[in-house]
Write a sequence for this structure.
């Protein structure tokens, strides 16, 4: 019995991966036509970005502050507290900003994308568009996909900035690290490569999380229950995939 | 008022707009249609009637090429749908308007923008023209004053009337109505009935109306088909159907649950399921 369920699971998994790959290709085909109507795309960038902005800023501050505390504790043991700026900047730029932003994005923007598109299917809006000769892949799916990809690096940048100020607040104001060395060491030690690594990561996460959110919504069973399940799958799949991709990319960059 | 016919529509059967030929269709191995055939003629109002769940909405999805039949063919304007490329299918749909059973308004646009949607997507008309067209159509369904409302603020009947305004805003050659009368008050019902008829008589629009409302339909329909059990069980004018002596037709027209047309979805024996073991209770 368990062998049968296992094969079933594997078959389902492989089928879903195949389906999403095909969906991805079809989305890519619709990116250019969707960009021909920038209004829709801009609206979706705003949606994905603005919906997550507050939570990103709050979390960025907390993560930065924790980084300041932990970093100070660690560096103090080696007598190099002035390196706190570097440590916080590298930790945020290369790792924490892209990853935590992607996780929060999946929970905030991703779920609302999935449920929005799923409900459009459940209320026959997507079918109505098709009958009106408007391709929902172009009108609904592609703009949301692009919006997510553009919003993700922007959100990660906001996360980094707020996070650095959080680390600075704890390290400099609370723990008494010299503000001059905090900022100047950061400036001299952080290289363009470090920034690029973070940007590439968040672009990749943007593609992955938006693809999953749009795919799950588009293929949700058209019922209240189906949309709920799809929303849950979006969070789980996006989070796991984000962490997996992060490991793979970090290994490649180092 | 007739537009130039699409390529391929010239021929002896020029008058047949939709030709459904021996179509078979199954969902999850459960057959919905076993060889259904019917035709819709130019400039006529064709009624499609049948009990709930016989597949009337499914038939409309087949005609608009949202789904493909398992067997048989559907010919619209002389083109076999299975041979059309996606672009050609979109071209065909631009000449059709469809009223969905639940309205299917786009929830993130207000009433005005919903009606303007096909115009904005398919034409480059200047804003004042779009405005005039949309307001005219909204006025025709009595909802010009609701232009600024969002779909969530409409009642079911109002939503259906907005959807009707949207379906006619492109001046289609064929209009498809899925249950246009359900949940309408008598006044709106009269308005919609007159609208269907006037668009047919005044503009020569071919109409396909799916409904249970035998009484209402018989006042406007030219041809009617009664579906049951996955096929056409009767065809003719509404008067012919009303006068039919066939048991199935009489049962539907008089609304009895006792007769050859099953009222129940296929199920195990009632007594056995109630009093026997629990098998068949859940699946
Ligand atoms: N996506 C689907 N999955 C499974 N079954 C379906 C699906 N769509 C339709 N069906 C089945 O097909 C049958 C026909 O459905 P359809 O909506 O066409 O009926 P209908 O004649 O329009 O009914 P009503 O008058 O209630 O609207 C139903 O019995 C339904 O169970
Ligand atoms: Mg129906």
């Amino acid at each position: 019995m368990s062998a049968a369920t296992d094969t079933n699971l594997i078959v389902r998994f492989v089928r879903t991966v195949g389906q999403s790959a095909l969906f991805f290709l079809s989305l890519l085909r619709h990116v250019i036509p969707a960009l021909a109507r920038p209004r829709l795309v801009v609206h979706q960038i705003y949606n994905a970005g603005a919906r997550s902005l507050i939570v990103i800023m709050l979390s960025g501050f907390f993560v930065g502050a924790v980084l300041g505390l932990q970093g100070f504790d660690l560096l103090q043991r080696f007598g190099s507290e002035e390196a706190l700026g570097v440590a916080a900047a590298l930790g945020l730029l290369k790792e924490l900003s892209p990853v935590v932003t992607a996780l929060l994005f999946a929970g905030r923007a991703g779920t609302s994308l999935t449920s929005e598109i799923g409900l459009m299917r459940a209320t026959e809006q997507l079918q109505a568009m098709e009958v009106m000769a408007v391709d929902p892949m172009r009108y609904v799916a592609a703009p949301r996909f692009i919006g997510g990809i553009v919003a993700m690096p922007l959100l990660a940048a906001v996360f980094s900035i707020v996070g650095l100020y959080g680390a600075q607040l704890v390290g400099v104001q609370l723990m008494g690290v010299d503000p001059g060395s905090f900022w100047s060491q950061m400036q001299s030690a952080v290289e363009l490569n470090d920034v690029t690594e973070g940007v590439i990561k968040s672009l990749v996460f943007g593609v992955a999380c938006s693809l999953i959110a749009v795919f799950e919504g588009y293929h949700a069973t058209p019922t209240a229950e189906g949309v709920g399940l799809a929303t849950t799958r979006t969070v789980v799949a996006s989070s796991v995939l984000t962490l997996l991709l992060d490991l793979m990319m970090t290994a490649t960059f180092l | 008022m007739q537009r130039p016919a699409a390529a391929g529509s010239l021929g002896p059967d020029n008058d047949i707009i939709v030709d459904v030929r021996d179509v078979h269709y199954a969902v999850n191995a459960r057959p919905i249609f076993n060889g259904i055939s019917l035709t819709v003629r130019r400039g006529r109002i064709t009624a499609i009637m049948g009990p709930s769940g016989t597949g009337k909405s499914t038939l409309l999805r087949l005609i608009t090429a949202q789904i493909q039949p398992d067997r048989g063919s559907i010919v619209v304007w002389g083109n076999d749908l299975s041979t059309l490329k996606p672009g050609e299918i979109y071209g065909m749909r631009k000449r059709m308007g469809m009223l969905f059973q639940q309205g299917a308004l786009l929830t993130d646009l207000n009433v005005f923008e919903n009606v303007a949607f096909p115009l904005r997507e398919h034409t480059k008309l200047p804003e004042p023209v779009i405005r005039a067209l949309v307001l005219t159509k909204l006025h025709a369904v009595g909802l010009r004053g609701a232009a600024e409302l969002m779909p969530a603020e409409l009642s079911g009947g109002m939503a259906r009337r907005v959807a009707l305004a949207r379906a006619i805003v492109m001046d289609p050659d064929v209009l498809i109505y899925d249950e246009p009368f359900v949940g309408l008050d008598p006044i709106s019902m009269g308005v919609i009935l007159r609208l269907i008829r006037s668009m047919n008589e005044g503009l020569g629009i071919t109409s396909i109306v799916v409904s249970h409302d035998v009484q209402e339909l018989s006042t406007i329909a030219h041809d009617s088909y009664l579906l049951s059990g996955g096929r056409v069980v009767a065809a003719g004018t509404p008067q012919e159907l009303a006068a039919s002596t066939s048991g199935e037709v009489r049962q539907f027209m008089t609304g009895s649950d006792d007769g050859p047309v099953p009222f129940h979805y296929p199920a195990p024996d009632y007594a056995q399921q109630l009093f026997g073991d629990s098998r068949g209770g859940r699946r």
Notes: DSSP finds ten helices and ten strands in chain B. Confidence is low (pLDDT under 50) at residues 1-12 of chain B. Chain B touches chain A at residues 61, 64, 66, 90-91, 93-94, 96, 98, 100-102, 104-107, 117-118, 121-122, 166 (CB under 8 Å). The pocket of magnesium ion (ligand 2) is lined by residues B 56-57, 101, 178 (CB under 6 Å).
